[in-house]
Specification:
Layout (H helix, E strand, L loop, with lengths): L5 H30 L5 H6 L6 H12 L2 H14 L1 H28 L6 H9 L1 H34 L3 H47 L7 H10 L3 H7 L37
């Protein structure tokens, strides 16, 4: 059983795809009409080289929030508590900072470049250019497959929609507005994605951490789990054959002589029977 019906899953896929395609295409059309911008190959591929810092920041967030990030960060948070998600984000932030420094230097030293492979060919020649072309092609295939399968698996879990059909339908919304507006349309769509992401985050934070004027179910569940002792957790977190997968963690080193306080895998607070 799934929380939503299969028809709702099709409505989500078609609805979101149509909304982002029509809305983004409309914004690109208004930009051409009001600002008098002309669609050229340079504007299509580089967004006119006039993207400001706010739009760039939203694009970075949108590109970073993909299936692997959402699933792995949740897995680390479940395994290691809130510190797992924090350290996962801290480790991934290094690449973003280095990419920003690299982008600044590229803008200074190769202001008319279009792609990474173009710069590699200018610096290291044809063989390195072909090598990087293959690397970039494989990276795009892997990332595109991961995004499509992640989205399809999510719709399948929510509404029971066929994964193969969902994987086929989800990319079409992106294909349509990208074919019309190029990179500029992609940036505008990313800005909308980030707005939706932040709205969802605010709602989740409000529901989880604020009890007043919010749902009490999450808070009541946390309080209930926090009240469990180690024996109760071992009983609850057990397989059908009786094998427990509950792990007890200590707040102090085993070599110390003071009593160790076991912790619940969910609450990560000291518990005693």
């Amino acid at each position: 059983d799934t929380p939503l019906s299969e028809g709702v899953g099709y409505a989500i896929v078609f609805g979101f795809g149509a909304f982002f395609s029509v809305f983004t295409t409309l914004l690109v059309y208004l930009d051409r009409k009001d600002n008098g911008s002309v669609q050229t190959s340079q504007d299509f591929n580089t967004a006119g080289r006039s993207v400001k810092i706010g739009l760039t920041a939203s694009v970075i967030v949108a590109q970073w929030t993909w299936a692997a990030t959402l699933l792995q960060s949740s897995n680390k948070a479940w395994t290691y508590g809130i510190s797992g998600a924090d350290w996962y984000a801290a480790g991934a932030s290094i690449q973003v900072l280095l990419s920003g420094v690299l982008a600044i230097e590229i803008k200074r030293k190769a202001p008319t470049a279009h792609t990474v492979c173009e710069m590699v060919r200018a610096r290291w020649g044809l063989q390195a250019h072909i090598t990087f072309l293959m690397f970039c092609l494989l990276a795009n295939i892997v990332v595109t497959s991961m995004l499509m399968l992640g989205g399809a698996a999510t719709v399948n879990a929510l509404a029971g929609m066929n994964i193969n059909i969902a994987s086929f339908l989800i990319p079409w919304g992106v294909i349509l507005y990208s074919a019309v507006g190029g990179l500029r349309a992609k940036f505008i769509a990313d800005y909308i994605y980030v707005a939706v992401i932040y709205i969802v985050l605010v709602v989740c934070f409000y529901s989880v951490y604020i009890k007043d004027f919010s749902t009490d179910e999450i808070n009541a569940g946390l309080e209930k789990v926090k009240s469990y002792c180690e024996a109760k957790c071992s009983e609850i977190f057990s397989a059908a054959d009786g094998v427990s997968f509950f792990k007890s963690y200590s707040l102090v080193a085993p070599s110390q002589t003071i009593a160790r306080a076991p912790m619940s895998p969910c609450s990560r607070v000291p518990l005693r029977c």
